[in-house]
Amino acid sequence: MTILGMCRPFRDPWDRVSERCFRCFPCLSDPARRSSLGLKVALVILHLIYVGVLFLFDSDLIEKTKKEPWYTAIYLLLFVATVAQYFFTSGSSPGYVLDAMRAANETDAIFRKTSTTSKQPASSKNGSYVITVDGSQSGKNPLGSNATSWTKLVMDMYPPGSSVRSWTCTYCNVLQPPRAKHCHDCDKCVLQFDHHCVWLGTCIGQGNHCRFWWYICEETALCLWTGILYISYLKANISRAWWMDAIMIVLLVTLSISLIFLLLLLLFHSYLVATNQTTYELVRRRRIPYLRGIPERVYPFSKGVCTNLYEFCFARSSIYRMEPLPSAQELEIKSRPYTCLDVLTCRCC
Ligand SMILES: [Zn+2]
Ligand SMILES: [Zn+2]
């Protein structure tokens, strides 16, 4: 059985805007935020150097732009989109457990206020529990006013008999749903924690994993296109000025290394998405209590490639999705070896 908890946090829109602005324009008095801002500036400068040098040195490209402006326009559009996606991902929320708890408690309180017919705090559809909140009624219940609804929701996702204490984060004292982990850089628990990205200065989790995938996809495409333009320049202008060629070759070599890294990263994250895993779960599989003992080739949270892709693509940072631990019966079904019939019926999809 699959239990899916979804809660929509409806905080004051002004709060959300100010929080986003604060994340985008870090306070310079905070060393962590200062280094994050330094990295962002460095990344933008690096992008500008690669593209600027190309337009500065390559007169053929300028000529081509005059004849076929659409070609350069698409390239520059990809450049702007990649930088914008970087800032968009960097400022997005990975889905903090604390926010999910606040939303779940608000949902429960509102439900109890408005409904008198049912005692279930969540609607059930196709074996999934979906919790929604009406935006107009948000913010009336302070955080933690009814921690038991969160406790019940989370403990339902663990096998019966599990202790609340063993799943409570010792740093933020919050009950963690399955797949959540405390990030020491953000000092918060993150839903479906993937990793903390230093380049972006934020965690990658359930709320922004899709944005992160698109960012590396755009960055790979930009790197590839820029590399092609560099190679075309070197082919046509190899004997003009040695120092120009030297600069272009150095930049092309670093660009090629970045491209290989980005391609591998893109492939790796595509694999994670297709199998519904996170980097943390893959790397620390033997150390995570709920994954210990599960055979390597079994992906406990996978619902088939198509469903995994659908859930990944339509995940929004404003919706918190929590997955329960699979039962022993589900794991047994998933670990069954593939037969010819399974291949024909696309069991993996
Ligand atoms: Zn924590
Ligand atoms: Zn983090």
Automatic annotation (TrEMBL):
<keyword id="KW-1133">Transmembrane helix</keyword>
<keyword id="KW-0808">Transferase</keyword>
<feature type="domain" description="Palmitoyltransferase DHHC">
    <location>
        <begin position="168"/>
        <end position="284"/>
    </location>
</feature>
<dbReference type="Pfam" id="PF01529">
    <property type="entry name" value="DHHC"/>
</dbReference>
<keyword id="KW-0472">Membrane</keyword>
<dbReference type="InterPro" id="IPR039859">
    <property type="entry name" value="PFA4/ZDH16/20/ERF2-like"/>
</dbReference>
<keyword id="KW-0812">Transmembrane</keyword>
<comment type="similarity">
    <text>Belongs to the DHHC palmitoyltransferase family.</text>
</comment>
<keyword id="KW-0564">Palmitate</keyword>
<protein>
    <recommendedName>
        <fullName>S-acyltransferase</fullName>
        <ecNumber>2.3.1.225</ecNumber>
    </recommendedName>
</protein>
<feature type="transmembrane region" description="Helical">
    <location>
        <begin position="212"/>
        <end position="234"/>
    </location>
</feature>
<keyword id="KW-0449">Lipoprotein</keyword>
<keyword id="KW-0012">Acyltransferase</keyword>
<feature type="transmembrane region" description="Helical">
    <location>
        <begin position="69"/>
        <end position="88"/>
    </location>
</feature>
<feature type="transmembrane region" description="Helical">
    <location>
        <begin position="37"/>
        <end position="57"/>
    </location>
</feature>
<feature type="transmembrane region" description="Helical">
    <location>
        <begin position="246"/>
        <end position="268"/>
    </location>
</feature>
<dbReference type="InterPro" id="IPR001594">
    <property type="entry name" value="Palmitoyltrfase_DHHC"/>
</dbReference>
